[in-house]
Specification:
Elements lengths: L1 E7 L2 E8 L4 E5 H8 L5 H17 L3 H6 L1 E6 L5 E7 L1 H8 L7 H20 L2 H13 L4 H23 L6 H15 L3 H7 L13 H21 L4 H24 L10 H11 L14 E6 L8 H15 L3 E2 L5 E2 L1 E5 L5 E4 L14 E8 L4 E6 L7 H10 L5 E6 L1 H9 L3 E3 L8 H14 L4 E5 L5 E6 L2 H12 L1
Length: 480
Amino acid sequence: MENKLQAFEKHNVRSIWDEEQGKWWFSVVDVVGILTEQPTQRGATFYWGKLKQRLKEEGASELLTNCQQLKLEAADGKKYLTDVADTEQILRLIQSIPSKKAEPFKMWLAKVGRERIDEAIDPELSIDRAIQNYRKLGYSENWINQRIKSIEVRKALTDEWDKSGVKQGEEYAFLTDLMTKTWSGMTTKQYKNHKNLKKENLRDNMTNLELIINMLAEATTTELSAKNNPQNLQESASVAYKGAAVAKNARLEIEQQGGKVITSQNAKQLGQIKEKNVLPNNTMDEGYIKYKAQHENAIDLPFSPLADELIRARDYLYTLGFVGVYDNGIGFGNCSFRTSANEFVITGSATGEIKNLSRKELCLVEKFDIEKNTVWSKGAISASSESMTHGAVYSANDKINCVLHIHSRKLFDFMKTGDFHFTAENIPYGTPQMAIAVMDEVKKIGAPHGIMVMLGHDEGIIAFGEDINSALEEIKALAA
């Protein structure tokens, strides 16, 4: 059976794929914790205990009988027998728990099952989904490339273990622990503690260099195993030690040269460092430009009649409070329409306080480069601080011709709890990471019209459509 952490919104659900029965088993406590919004695992466990008692009293013991117990990893890194249920049982369980998350969770269950079937038909889909998820979480493209490669290396190693008669589960874990301790000097549990991790995946919290050294251990072990052809766990352990020793020597050599391989920083801390370094020195906070602006001052640009339609839509959003200015004087909200393949007209920077916009507050974005974090524009005013994000939406679908970026506390909070597309909370607005994440989500939506929320951009929502009216309708429908 294959153990896996599955993400629902910001929560992890421990799960196991049963190859023989062709279905997922989910941790009941994790599901109960999500549905009842328990702040701690202990609270979820207590609620599940009370619910079991109530179900017995109500004569619904069949649900409890059908639940199984399988070993799942706990916060301390050890595996314990845990109540699990399949999709059908989880759906029945949801009926017993009053929760505003019931419907979103049902849709999530269906999505998890569908993705597993899709990946069985086309294994590349699992890699594609991993890439998209890492981008949403704000990892750099370089790190993602290394992580995907590490998954491939790990798969080659486990295939070799399978041929050697090593069993999935505890025997896999034993060999992995042996290799980790050999090259790093710490067991997997000690390594996770070193990074202050609980349920999180250790490899997802490694630096590029840590991933490379770990890959060296696994790739070398795979090569040695193919050559020596071990026939059982004991022989495979001997090969694993030798492979990991090669990686240990590489680590020691790097450290002797003054480098550092093992770090106590986890993904969250590494992400914070990346976000601090990714922006130019003159970057300012909310409402200000974070990209490199190559702007040419120009007066009375020959905008098309669509400019007036965009202004009307923007002014309408202003009357609803979706575009405007905060008490600290910082404006929010911006609108654009596409003029050609890579050009678009967008409302200018710091125009949120203007009640009735005019053409002089519009700017033409002639081109943009996400990798270089640069926008080239022309007009009497600089382009909006969200220009890069608008460009990313247009790049994702050539049928999209309008993007409306609004702010609304009420709609933002509603979308956070619903089944809407979103970018991760640790991705700040106006950055290349945000542009890439938005592009990925728009591609997932597929249609040339839709709406999504940017969790890392407080109150930030993006609507888009084939034209200005259809984009506006997305907002109206949500606000209705």
